[in-house]
Amino acid sequence: MTRSHRLSDLSFVEFREAMAEEPVILLPFASQEEQGPHAPMGDYRLTREIADLAAQRSGAIVAPTIPFGYADFFRAFAGGIQLRSDTFKAVVEDVAVSFLEHGLERLIIVNGHTTNSFLIDEVMRKLQRERGVYLVSMDIWQSLDSATWTRIHGENAAAARGHGADPMTSVYMHFFPDQVHLDRVTIEPNGTAFGLPVRGPRGVGFGTGTVNMPLSAKDANAAGILGGDPSFSSPEKGAQIVEHVVGQIADLVAHLKTQDPRSL
Description:
This protein has helices at 12-19, 44-58, 85-100, 117-131, 146-153, 157-160, 168-175, 217-220, 235-256, and strands spanning 25-29, 61-62, 107-111, 136-139, 192-193, 196-200, 203-206, 209-212. By secondary structure, it is of the alpha/beta class. It has a domain at 7-156 and 239-256: Rossmann fold (3-Layer(aba) Sandwich). Strand 3 (107-111), helix 4 (117-131) and strand 4 form a beta-alpha-beta unit. The longest helix has 22 residues, at 235-256. The radius of gyration is 19 Å and the shape is globular.
């Protein structure tokens, strides 16, 4: 019988047998946050599906997805769940150490919420200092290079990308088509703060640059669409995005198998 690629499906005996192969372990992290009025808040499910497909393709074993991340600037929208930065870092470290303690050192953090990345970096550096192991992390939505993005979206490439639009809306339409309702999209003007245009939850435009401020996503846009136009999204585009991202993760798994996690 073929062994499952999901850690959650395996008994400890089955996993102990798999350990003899020194498998690469995928550790998915994401978020529960608003994605505009048209899409579900549980965007961690997109990361879960992508990591699952990548494990199937590559022979890696995928751990259960951690659904909560560092998403403090979405706190103004009810239904989001935000971990404090120290909490999130502790969770990342505890999950990783659970494998490191058993000699499993080829770990890939599959990050589906870009704002988690600087905290993941802190944990990876801490573990490298203390345990001598180099973990790696991939921000899955950032793995879409400009050429791939243009191939998928053509002349609408710039207009389609942003929070509340693509890549996530198209990927939602690919995985969960019945849960996306583009007719609910409302175009709201971006907000202002101190009489200045809000450019996102981190700041406002001033002169030729940006002044940083501790704003919320709702300060930036009442509809929660912080950039991009979801009308350009489609399930077909979602399938292309998923194929690209899954391929990137699977290729990284294959490469990491050839490397020593304790040596550069």
